[in-house]
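User: Here's a chain of 240 residues. Predict its fold as tokens.
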Amino acid sequence: MKLSTVVNKKSIFLVFIFILIFVINHQMKFLTLDSLKSHSEMIQQVVHQYPVLSWLVLFVLSTVLTSIAMPVDIIISLISGSLFGFWFGLALVSFSNTLGSTGLFLISRFILRDFFEKKFTKHVSIANRHIKKDGDFYLLTLRLIPIFPDVLINIIMGLTQIKVMKFYWISQLGTVISIGLFVNAGLQLSKITSISDVYSPSLVISLILLGVLPVIIKFILMKIRKNKPICESGLLDDLS
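Assistant: Prediction complete.
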């Protein structure tokens, strides 16, 4: 394949992504909790009439937005819990988020590799070193501690030697806990009808778990590993 052909394909892809992000930012202002609350009755009617189609539309939307580096996992989790309940919401966000993450992983590896390698040279070097040292445990640690930017994880992992399927199943496993908590929080938010409901035990517990989850998981991982924990190796500072 000629170099000019490759450049043209990358240019077309970048233009498409920029246009898509521009359209999303300006035409999809409904994807906020305030907007959903104000249109909740209409949305609930649509979901009630077309439950499967509504689920599929949100699934595709979540997958596409994640694959173009839009950080929508939290808002989609809350929306899914509110509209579809815990288990259907969890399935929607867990699989769409992992598929979208894998899509961004592939874009980083095969389409925009040169661009991202120049931008994240230091991060890739750190990631390769930890993958060599800790193997699958490294990516699992990043996924289990929901304080690392998912977008950066997806991009940087695409530049390493990790295999696609391994990236997929570890990401699927590692994000299900944090996603489940956000989906459950969305389920509780859907039950709020007055100010007093904000202080319901189930909602308070969900929000507390979201706050302490990174600390709990970090403590568990430190107990599992006797050597220096990954989360204290300086990677968090590099990714921030």
